[in-house]
Structures are given as structure tokens and as C-alpha cells.
Write a structure and sequence with these properties.
- By secondary structure, the protein is α/β, with parallel strands linked by helices.
- 36% of the residues lie in helices and 11% in strands.
- It has a single domain, classed as Protein-Tyrosine Phosphatase, Chain A (Alpha-Beta Complex), CATH 3.90.190.
- The protein has helices at residues 19-24, 62-77, 93-104, 109-119, 133-146; strands at residues 2-3, 8-11, 29-32, 48-51, 83-86.
- A 5-stranded mixed β-sheet has the order 1-2-5-3-4, with helices on one face.
């Protein structure tokens, strides 16, 4: 799991074996954006588990982009939530979904990309196979129309682990 902000994390498939570690890290909500149904049930201790299927080899359709944004917003706006967004490997789909949401919250696309890539060295947010310039504009317009004021401003602050020294 790679923590991008205090509220949002990204990574590989949330398997039954990974569920205890996710719960121990404080994850409360799980969003699966792979093309395969998840295996982590809500009764494993999460407040919400959702699936918005995304094809790894095609542009994300407009309706799916809106569904991703709205689902992430609902989860992230829940008081005290920590949302884990995953796909199969945590390289393209989940970083791109998280990137689109940060862009919808007003984070400049390059900054959002930097935050995610800093947290997750394997991530490739905004992969050109999945999104184009129209996705950025859609995210910005949808976020502006639906997500402000955000009830949790800490969501748009990059997470920095405490200095071990």
C-alpha cells in the first residue's frame, strides 16, 4: 500500500491475504478499479467496498470516469475514512483513478502525478492508454460542480511519512 494523502492510498489488488494489513494501516474503504471483481468482503472490517471496473487497455469512458470520481468522493468525504484504491498491480488503473480525483479537487495534474509517483514508485498515473486531455477537463469541471467545499481539506495535502530520525 502506498499512501498518497492522509486520506487516499493506492496499490495492488486487495486480496484476502492483504486485508489484515490494510485494516492495520487504517484503511476503511476499498475501491477496486480492476476488471476483475474483488475478493475482499465488506464484512472483513471495512466500512465500504466498491467496484468500478476499468479496462486496462482502453480509454476510460466518460460515464465510468464520472462514476469513479463520485465513488471516490463519497468514500473520501466520509469522516475519518482512509480509502485504498486498487487494481491488479497498482501501476495504471488505480493511480489514474486517484490522479483524476485529485485533479477534480483542484490539484494541478502535474502535481497530482508527482504526489502519486513519489508515494508509489511503480505507479503511472494518467497513463495515455487510459486517459486523454478531455479526461482532465471532465474531472476539473465535475469536481468544481460537485465536490466543493470539500468536507476534508486534508485530502489535498500530500502524505509525508514521519522522519525516522
Amino acid at each position: 500500500m502506498y499512501r498518497v494523502t492522509q486520506v487516499l492510498s493506492v496499490g495492488p489488488f486487495a486480496s484476502l491475504e492483504r486485508a489484515p494489513a490494510l485494516l492495520a494501516a487504517g484503511v476503511t474503504h476499498v475501491l477496486n478499479v480492476s476488471d476483475a471483481a474483488g475478493v475482499v468482503p465488506r464484512d472483513a472490517g471495512f466500512r465500504e467496498v466498491a467496484w468500478v471496473p476499468v479496462d486496462d487497455f482502453a480509454r476510460i469512458p466518460t460515464h465510468t470516469t464520472v462514476e469513479l470520481l463520485d465513488t471516490l468522493h463519497r468514500m473520501a468525504a466520509d469522516p475519518g475514512s482512509h480509502v485504498y484504491v486498487h487494481c491488479l498491480a497498482g501501476q495504471h488503473r488505480s493511480p489514474t483513478a486517484l490522479w483524476l480525483y485529485l485533479v477534480a479537487l483542484g490539484v494541478p495534474p502535474d502535481d497530482a502525478r508527482d504526489w502519486i509517483e513519489t508515494a508509489s514508485p511503480v505507479a503511472n498515473p494518467g497513463h495515455r492508454r487510459l486517459v486523454g486531455p478531455g479526461h482532465v477537463l471532465l474531472a476539473q469541471k465535475h469536481g468544481l460542480a460537485n465536490f466543493f467545499p470539500h468536507p476534508r481539506p486534508e485530502i489535498v495535502v500530500p502524505f509525508r511519512a514521519a522522519d525516522p530520525g
